[in-house]
C-alpha cells in the first residue's frame, strides 16, 4: 500500500469516524498515529512524532492570544456591551423600514470587533434583539434569521478566533489577517443591511407579520447623554484591542491582554461581575482554550503525517495533469469547505482541510492572507447551513420556551443571508484586492 493511499484512506475514515460521533481531535490524532505507523512500518516513530508535536505545536507565546480573546468575549457578554450596541444602533436606524434588522446587523458588527466569536454573538443577540423585533411586529422567522446571519460577522471582523487559528496553521501574521478581514467584514455587513431594507420594501410579508407594516419602528428617543454613556465603553474596547495592533504599539497577543483587562474593568465598574460569575468566566475560558489547543496539537500531527506521505505534492501533480488551474482549485476548495460545514464546526474544518490544501495554495502562488479571508467566509457559511448549522442550534437553545419556532423555520429564515454570504464570497474570490487593500 502506497503512502498516498494511506493518507487518502485516512481522509475517508476521518469522515466516517466524525459521522459516528468521535471527537475531531481524537480522530485526527488516532489516524495520524496509525498513518505514520503504516507509512514507516514502525510504531516507535509514530509515538515519537506524537510526543514531538505535542511539545512543538503550542509552545510559542503567541498562542496566549487564544485564551485572552476568549476571556475578553465572555467578559464583554457579562458587561452587557452587546445590549448597549444594539440599543444605540436601534436609535440610529429607527426611521428606516426594517430598521431593527439593520440595527441588529450593525450591533453585531460592533460586537464582532470586540469578541471575535460568532457563537457568543448568536447567544447575546438572541436574547437582546429577537424580543424587540417580535414586539414591533416582525416575522419570527425573519427575526431569528437576522441574528443567525449577522452572528457570522464575529469570525470575519477582527479580532477573529478563526483568523487566529488560520494564522497559526498557515504561519501568517495574525495582525495582517485582522487587517485583511476589515473591508470584507464591513462589505458583508452592508450587504446584509441592503438585503434587509430591500426585503422590507419589496417583500414586506417576509419581514413583518402584517403585510402592510408600520412606516417606522417607533420607540422612545434615547437622551444624548445616555447614548454617549453606552458608546464610550464600546469605543474604548475597540480602540484598545485594534488600535494598538494597527498602530504597531503592541502585538496581537498583547492586544488580547489589554482587551481582557479593559473588559474586566468595564464589567466591574458596571457591577455586572461577582466573584462567583468571574470564576465561571475563567472556567469557561479554560474549557474553550483547552479544546482549541488540543485541536491545534492534533491538526499539527495530521499535517506532519500528510507531509510524510507526499499527498499534497501528489494532488498537485494530479490537478496539473487534469488541466485544473487556480480557478478550478478554488472552486473545489470552497465546495469542500462549505460541504464540511454542514456536518462539523468551523475550527475543525480548518484543521482538517488546511494541512492538505495550504501546500497546494502555495504551489499555485496564491496570497495566503487573501486565501485566509476566503477560507473564513466559506467556513462561516457552514454555521448557517443544515444539518449542523451551529449558530442555528445556539439560537434555538437560547430561545428556550420564549418562542415556539422549529429548527427548519430558523434555517429558512437564514436562507437570504446565506445566499448573501455566497454572493460576497464570490466577489472576494473574483477581486482579491478587496481583502488586501488595507495592507498596501
Name the features.
21 helices; mainly alpha; about 450 residues; globular
Q: How would you describe this protein?
A:
By secondary structure, this protein is mainly α. The chain has one domain (3-439). It has 21 helices and no strands. Helix 9 packs across helix 18 and helix 10 (174-202) packs across helix 20 (407-430). It is globular, with a radius of gyration of 22 Å. Residues 214-218 have low confidence and may be disordered.
Q: Kindly state the number of beta strands.
A: 0
The largest sheet is: none
Please tell me the overall pLDDT.
Answer: 81
The oligomeric status of these chains comes to single chain
The total tally of domains equals: 1
Distance between the termini: 48 Å
Poorly predicted sequence stretches spanning 5 or more consecutive residues: 214-218
Q: What structural class do the secondary elements suggest?
A: mainly alpha
Roughly what percent helix? Answer: over 70%
Radius of gyration (Å): 22 Å
Overall geometric form: globular
Which band does the percent of strand residues land in? Answer: under 5%
Elements, N to C (H/E)? HHHHHHHHHHHHHHHHHHHHH
Please tally the helical runs, counting DSSP H or I stretches of 4 or more residues. Answer: 21
